[in-house]
Every structure is written in C-alpha cells, then in structure tokens.
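Consider this record:
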Amino acid sequence: MSKKRNQLNRRAVMRPRMLVMAVLSAMPLLHATVTQAAPFDISNVPLYLGGTLDPNLMYIHDDSGSMYWSFLPDNASSNSVLATSSSANLQYYNPTATYLPPVDHNGDSLGDASFTAAWFDGYDLASRASNVVNLSTSFRATWAYAGSWIGGAQPAYYHQYSPPRTNCTTVAEMVSTNTNCYVKVVVPTAQQQNFANWYSYYRTRVYSAKAGISRAFATLGEGIRVGYGRINDGTSDTIDGKSVPVIQRGVRAFSGTSRQQFFDWLFAAPASGSTPLRRSLDAAGKYFDNDNAVGPWSTTPGVSGGEHLSCRKSFTILMTDGYWNGSASGPALANNDGTSGPSHSGPDDPSYTYSAVSPFTDTYSGTLADVAMYYWKNDLSSLDNRVKPTPLDPAFWQHMSTYAIGFGLAGAVDPDAAFDAITSGATITWGNPSGTASIPAKIDDLLHAGVNSRGGYFSANNPTEFSDALAKTLAAISDATSTASAAVANSTRLDGNTMVYQAKFDSGDWTGELLGYKLDTTTGLLGTADPKKASEGIDAHGARKLFTWRTDAGKGIVFDWDELSGAQQADLGSKAMVNYLRGDKSNEGTGATKFRIRNSALGDIVNSTATFVGTQDFGYGTASGLTASERDSYKTRRADGSYKSRTQMLYFGANDGILHAVQANDLKEVFGYVPNILFSGGHLAALADKDYTHRYYVDGSPRAADARVGGAWRTVLVGSTGAGGRAYFAMDVEDAPSFDKSKVLWEFTEPDVGSALGQASIVRTESGNWVALFGNGYNSDGHTARLFILDLQTGAKLAELDTEVGTDASPNGLSTPLAVDSDLNGNADLVYAGDMYGNLWKFDLSGSNSSQWKIAYKSGPNPMPLFKAEDSGGKAQPITAKPQAARFASRGKPEIIVYFGTGKFFEVGDQGAVSDPQTLYGVVDECITDTSGSCGTASVAEVRRSNLVEQTINVEAYNVPFGSFTSDIRLISDNPITPSHKGFFIDLISPVKGLQGERIVVEPVVSEDRVEFISMIPNPDPCGEGGESWFFALNPTTGGQTKFSPFDLNKDGDFSDKEFYNDGSKDVPVNGRRHPGGIVNGPPAGPKDCEFVTDSGGNLSCEKKETAASGRRSWRQIR
C-alpha cells in the first residue's frame, strides 16, 4: 500500500494545534501481562534499584597525644590572655558559637552540662558524674595534658579581642598577639549553659572531634557499612580474614548493635601516642585488599556464605590534627604516584592505565599520597571490574578512595586548585613531606592523598566547621543517586540561555535533587559551570509559600496549622508536624518525641518529570476552531510586554508531599502545593516517622498549557499524585511569583479514579469546553478502564467514558491518553489510550456537547477497542505508556497511524518478568472522520495482529566498530507493506539472547521520517544499573528499515552510510542501538542536534540528531 505523507509545512509541524494536541506524557511506573489478581501491587520503591549495594567506609581516628591539647593551632601561645581567647586560640570558648551536646547512636543528646557541676570528661558516660567542676568558682583552663593548666581556679572567663584600648590604638598595635587588645569577660548568666557544654564536650581537640563525629555520623542512614580503627593501635589482629594493625572492626551495616558499638568506641577513644598516618592508611588499604570469603567485598563481612559484589565502592576517612611521623614500609610506600600503570580492563571492554601526570605525580617516595595512590590504582579484588566510575573517579576496578580530614591544619597548596587540576590537568607542585620536621608539605601530603585517590580533603578550624564538613563527606560517600524521570529542557533551540534539567534521588536517605545545566552554545553539550540545584533554593520553613486544598470549603488554603481543617489537623496531629513538613529541622532526631532526620528538605524525585513553563506558543492565535475574538485575544496576550518577560518556571512533584514550583534560571522555589488527598490515613505524617519506609506522595508528572479560564487566557497546570494517591489537581500559574491560595482551582478524586500514574492533557474540545482529561489509572473501585474529562476551571466532571472492560478478579485501568486534533483546527476531537488488557481505545470527542462524547466503536451496546495487543500465542499485552500518532493519506482518504508499545513496570515482581514477549506497534486508524456512520461498527474498527506486517530484529551485534567508536546494534527487517496491511509490529525478542523481559514503558516519538521507540530490559542485579535500554528508529509507515542512518555511530556528524552494517548480504542502516548505561527513563529533551536522555544509573547523555537542514526534526515539544 503506497502511503503519501500529508504536506504539512515545517511551521505547522512544530505547532501544537496540528495533529498531536497533548505532548510529553509522564513516564508512568509502567507494566507486562493481563492475568491479573486484584488489586495491582504497585511498588513503593523504584523497581530497577534491585538489591541494596551499600558502600564500605573505614573510619581511622587520630588518637595521638596532641589530640588532648586544648589549643589550636600547634603554635598557639600559652600566654594566659591569648590562650583563653578564641581569637588567638581556636580551641578555646568562642562566645559567638553555639556548643551543642554530642549525640548517641540514636541521635539523642548526651545532655547539657551543668555550669555548677560540669563534667571534666563529658564522654565518660559511666563515671563522669564523679568528676565535676563548679565553673562559677573553680574553673581552670586546661592546656596540653591532664594537670596542665593556664591560671588558677576562678570563675569561668574568656578574653575578648576588642580594640581600641590602652596601648592598642594604632594599626601596628591592633594585632591579635598584643595582650593589651583584650578584655577579660567573666561568663555572664546568658552564656553559662553554652560555656558548660564547651567545657565538658569541646575544650580539647579530641573532645571537639568526638562531638563533631557523633553529630555527623548520627545523620548517616543504614545504607552504608562502617568499620573503624585508631592510628596508634599497632597490634596486628585478624579482621575479616586479614591480619592488619590499626583496624579494630571491619565494615558492618551501620544499624542496631553495630551502630551503637561505633559510638561507644568513639566516646571511649583515648589520646596518647604519635601520628603514624602512613601505616594507618596502609592498614586500611590492606584490609580492603582482601578476597577472603568473610572479607569486605562480601554481603556478610565477618561471616562466610555471603555473595561478593563486584561493584561495591570502598572509602577510608583519615582524620588527624597533626603532621605524620613514624616509620612505614612495603610496596605502598614506593613512588606510586610517580610511576605510570598498571592497566585495567572490564567486562564491557573499558580500559584504563594510570599516567603519572599532574596533579597526581611527584618525585618523592614514602609519602601518604603514595599509599593512597597504591590502593587506588591497583585492583584490590579478583572480582570482575564493575565499580561505577564518576566524573571525578574513573576507576571501575575495586579500589579505595581516601578522604583526609585535617583539624586546624593549613598547607601551602590550595585544595580547590588541586582538585580542579584533576580535570584541567593544571600543574600542582607538591613539596617534599619527608623528614621529622613539622612542615606545610606534610599537611599538603594529606591533600595529595585525597587527590590521588579521587576522594576528598578538608581542614576545619572550629567544631562547627568540622561537623558540617564531615557530614557532607559522609553524604558524598553514601550517595546512591539515581533517576527515573526524563530530562527536561527549556528550549528546542540552542542559545545562551538553553538549559537542561535532570531530577535525581538518593535511595540511601530518600532525598532528591533537581539539577539545571546550562548548555555550551557551540557544542550543545553540558557547559562547564556547576549546575544549579533546587535543594539550595528552598527558603526557611516559615518563609515558604506552600498551599493545599480544603475539601470542606472547596478552596485552596495556605499550608499552615491555623488554616487547616479539623480533619487535616487530626491527620497531622500537631503544628510541629506541619512545620516539619514545611522544612523545619528543629524537631529532628531519634528520641521518642523527635521526627525523622533529613539531609535535605527536598524529597526524592522519582517518576515525576518536570514541566517547563515559559512563553511557548500553543498556536491558538491562528486556530480556526476558535472564535475570532479568542484568536485575537491570544495574540494580544502574547504580544504584551509583561507576558514576554514573565518568570520562566519548572514544576515537578517530589515524595516530600509537595508539587514544587521553581524558577527555571536558578531553581529557587517560588511556591509549592500539598495535595489534600495525602492527609488521609496519616500518609503525609508518615514522612516524619523515624522508621520511615519509602512510599510515593507527589510522584506524577504535571502538565501545563494555555487555556481560556474565567474568560481570559491563562496558563493552567494539572498535576497528579502518581502512585502516591488517587487525585488530580489544577492551578492557575499564569504569574507564578504572585501565586496565592486563590489560584488553586480544584482537586479531584472519586472512587473510579485509581492510582494516578498517568499524565493529564489540557485541550479545547469541538464543543468549546476547555478540559483536563486523563485515564483513571489502576486500583480504582470499579476496576474498569475509564477516561475522565473535567471542566478545566471548576474541576466538575463533564464525562466519564467507561470501556466496561475489567472485573474485581481481573482489574483494569486506562493509561495516559493522547488527545488528537485530527482536522487541525485547534480542538481535540479524538483520544487514544491503552489499558492493561492490551486494548487500544479510541474515544470520540467530536460532538457539539459533552453528552455526545463516546467510545468510538461498539458491537451492539458493548464498547470495542480499535486494536487488541496480543502475542503470537493470543496472550494479552498491557499498554501502559502513552501512545503517539501521525497522519497519512492512503486509499484516497486520511488515516492516522497510532504508535505504542506493550509491557508494564510498576508492580512488585515486574523486574523479574521475562517469559511474556512484548511488542511495539504501529496501527492504522482508517476512520479519522465518519461521514457515513459506518466507522462506529465493530467490523470497521477491527484491526488484528494478522492484519499487520511483521518486522523482526534480524541481527544483534556487540562492540561493533564505527570509526574509533564501538556500539551494540540491531538490524531490522524491511518487509514490504501492502494495501491489505493495517500497520506493523515488531516482537521484542533478541536473536541472540531470546526473551529477556524487554518491553516498552516510554512513549514513542514521531518525526517526519521516523518513529522512535525506547525499550527497557530490567535486571535486578545490584551491579547492573537496574537494566538497559535499546533505541529504535524505524520507518514510520512500515516499521522496518529507514533509508538513512538515524544514528551517528562514528560521531562524525554526517549520518552517512559509514554507519551502515552488513546484514549478511548487503550494507543496511542500523535501526537499533543499545544505550550505554542504565534504563532510559523517558523521551529525549533539548535542542534537536543534541537531545538529552537520563537513565537509571543517574547518567545524563546527549543523543545526536541531524540538524534542521536535513529535514528530519521531531514534532514533540518540551512543555
């Protein structure tokens, strides 16, 4: 059958009023077979996370004698004035600092000290009460060791640097070493509690360290394995199968008894001895260089029988207050950073050889940096090399990264410059740290160790700095970021303001992040500037503009305790709970009355793809289906200066219970919305539970579009709770900075709305109604697949079109619908959507009023689908992703081809489903318009698998070279389509691996010369990034080969026959390519010559496309 494409000009193709009205659906949590026992068991965590993979962390504590000193830095003066002022002695009491008590393994405070009976050692929990000091009468400032004092017993005091004073008036005199510049202050009543806490918990270096370490490690969740040791423990013990000094316990899950033991060990740690840092770091490396069955690579270290995981990361934190000394020997002490090699390779054919270049190399042997380099560049296990590299750390073999923490230390090399040199290659000159002298080069050797091992370094000058920096280090180590939502761009053109946005989440503590990257205007790739971060743009809890909905009043309200209804207050329980949900951290902790500790106020962003709202043209200024006044007013609005300059925004849902609205340029939060449906059953309050188990809250993808509301043009947003609830909500976002509670339009839920996994569409119908339409999702009370159509302004239900397919025993649900403007007049007249039974439904909205809207096809009184997806054995294939469509002319009349794939990936167990073959389809709808009335009959509607031409995956080849690059590829058949065919299909069966559970859970993308599908193959292996994806780029009418190369496989920008591959008889285009990462989470976004995709490994990568000159451009717009 010869099909000729409608001659739609490029301008019309890019306008949303053409064929496809509703663009950019969510990536729902999607699915794979129809034999379904009620209800749907929707997973509350991302399925691709697989098993847990907690990193190893070895903490090495400095227990040297200098840690008992009460002065900082080492050369601080012992003069009785200077020694008792924080201006000269950083360790002494600072009246501007707040000294919080340390915390135990539960995060509970060790208690405030008493000013009149202050503990001499607040960490000696068993006997501290027997050794107390009355600070109001008997305070003596300690100095180097117990019994070493500054001054006699007297009321507690400090000296404050406060020039000008007598003999402290000139610039030359006003220096911190001039004792005349100080005034003695007896601790006033208001400061006595703070001073007592300092005395008992912070007055020595070791005390300050214990306080900071306890508070930092208290924020650490259970998603990490912690071991520990002391630098002066020289006895070699067998730890997890390896005889090593220093290490006192191997890595264990940081929970329960093991967590308590760490804090008990920390509080009891002594301070006596030298500073053998090289021996200590070497001991940590030897511990990790261990393939023993009970070693650190096992899932059960210390106990045999565990599984060794090849992608586990390992870190060491080395904390010290001084310059290293002592002897050390062995291969780790050679000039390892000055010697190139060795080489490494991995199972996916990566390779790496260390090169002795700056900023790593020096000419010295026996340094701490050499030890760090040895255990970074050498493979510490015989396991496959499957550690995930990062931009900072390219190592994919088992290795150790070192974080060096200095306490009151300063070297000669700038740490930022040293770490920047890892990517820039700038020259860093390292001094010689050898010898016994205390020289800056030894401090730089700590920094050098962090650089060599691609870890980190910081030096803190006060307890607050120390605790904060250590907490950030622990967060970086425990980071387990991933992404399940698609990339979003603010433009399809590349200019100086083009940005790409990526949402991520950390499954260790279920925090989230939205990153904004500015693109390089020359390359179209990510720029070099650090990305913007939404987590950094959230105001203090009292200043945030948060709103919700009151069902009893039928209006929006401020999310504040005093405005909540009685039922809402009862669900949350207290004003403190409301403040916590607004971001207040003051009540966080692990005590009986405390709330869950959060590392960020921004919750995890999993399946919610952000929507961008700028000044997009929706084409209504020229839409013939609108009245002349509507068209003119739309053009007038768009020409208005205030509209042109309005704040560009991003909207996304997070599982902190909030739909977030942030400025697109800097990601600063403008307002947020908490759906009322989340109050029910205490689900919202569960976010504060210390034993919080992850669930979804606002996990749906919002949709925004221009529409007429209240007689005026506005931008309206419709959002959903996703798997977090059974509700949709709408708001007027025309002017986001002035958003208030009156702009919340409605929130809708009813029994036949299930989990709102899909995305709504915002359209004008032929009847003149502006509506929001959506599928009812899964687990509705009625269990059938239904299309809901609501009045956009009021949320009133205009229609509920029930397919009548589904039962209690075998429930059904409708996925995200596609609204189509078949006659290109600006109004939606057709809707296509799939269900769990494999039915592709067509809904007819062409009627002049809502009572005429209907399911397009019937057999007698029974609704009939356009097509039923079944595999070759007749088993139904679920359709859970939004379809797409394109219009063609054939047999003398217009036709639509509807493109969709089958499979699901949102129920528990879906990640292991491999036995049911899934399929991608292109199905012809011959009845765009019906002048005879025959299009409503079942005989016309009936399209079966036997009516479609079958294309196949003929070749699947791996590591195929194209120029200097390699790709995994697929070749597709080119079977001809005939007049009797009503479309095409391809079964997702690998010719090499057979059935793998491959499925389609992402909407296709239709371009002028191709249709693109993205498949996914789940893999529960914790080292497998959750699975993999294949890109398909197919002939849009046949589903077979294109006539050109759709992929730039050799990266020369030509898309020529150089990217063809021989199928056994001739060179043909490559129409399938495996994504070199995890599962791709949604359609690409951004400028067309470089569209960005995200995957489950947290990667953001560019997919090159031809430029506009080739005539190959996508219809899809990001909005």
